[in-house]
Amino acid sequence: MASVIQVKEKKLMDVQLGELPSWILMWDFTPKSIAGAFQRGYYRYYNKYVNVKKGGIAGMSMVLAAYVLFNYCRCYKELKHEQLRKYH
Amino acid sequence: MLSRVVFSAAAAAAPCLKNAALLGPGVLQATRIFHTGRPSLAPVPPLPEHGGKVRLGLIPEEFFQFLYPKTGVTGPYVLGTGLILYFLSKEIYVITAETFSAISTIGLLIYVVKKYGASIGEFADKLNEQKIAQLEEVKQASIKQIQDAIDMEKSQQALVHKRHYLFDVQRNNIAMALELTYRERLHRVYKEVKNRLDYHISVQNMIKALSTLVYHVRNMYKPQLNVSESTVGCVAPALLSKKTAKDIVALLPCPPGVNPLTFTKMNDQKRKIGQQRSKQSKQMKNDNAGDMNKLYSIMECILQSIVQLKHKFFLDIETLQSNMLPNFIFECKATKCYSSVYAYAT
To answer: What's the domain of life for this entry (chain A) (predicted)?
Structure first.
């Protein structure tokens, strides 16, 4: 458990699997930090895929794909009734 | 800009940006350094040329790289295919009527992107370039302006060092002007003095001539005139004090029958009258009276010339030349009188 001491600073890839719950619990769950997290994520994506000299489809298409998926997940419950076969 | 403030606050709350505790996949953007410590307003690094690489327009390259060590090149594709089949077979993805519309829409989109994507990209790039060129122009213009201002400033400073040339020129001009006026005045002084001296000389010469004339006249007419020898030479100095020809003529002893006032040049009529009278008196007098009249006229000329001399020397000084005396005598009618007097006297 010697690695617990520095757990907060680690990135996801460096965290050991056993320390995962404690690592997650170390986050701030204040609204301010959550908003900060969203902003950071947004800027990360933006600066990587959109705010470039020669951007491509990727920047927008990923967002749209994510949106599509999100909506599909939302509607899944109603879609379940339109399944073609009952047993899979 | 507000976001940066919030970011910095958030970054302050959690120690550093690499607080990937809140972030998903641990991939950091190495190119854009963002909120490291304190925000610096120094020149922002330029935009990256291309965005993060993406395969199939949807899946970032990092995913493929993530799976490469374990599964090689085909890993993610196999994974994708497997996932799709799984969703279909388990009907996690339900095939409905919308499926077909989705397929056709996506097919169309892909076709359009494949065909016109490059040209649209170029068009957008051109627009960008125009914007950038404009800004660049503004920047260059401002730089040029400032450079011009700097150069002008420098040239003016250089001029300041060369100011002394201007002052030297002005000083020289003034010195020349002063010299000029000094010399002019010196010359004028010289002329004036010479004038006065010339006047005295010419007056003396005139007096000499006149006194010889008077002497000869008196000598010739000594029996008629009751004049003693001693008074012959005394007339001359008294001539200078008299102002007009009339006064001078009045000094001379008047022969009987001759009115000295009639011999002024201005009164020609009077002269004529006097001549008539002299003609009349000629019958009564001998030839000497006519000679006396002639002599008196000659004398009067000379005396007039003396007066004129005075006037000429003291009124019209600038026109005098250096060797005035012979010219003057030449100019005046006294020349004729002079020579005729001598001819008569000798």
So the answer is: Eukaryota
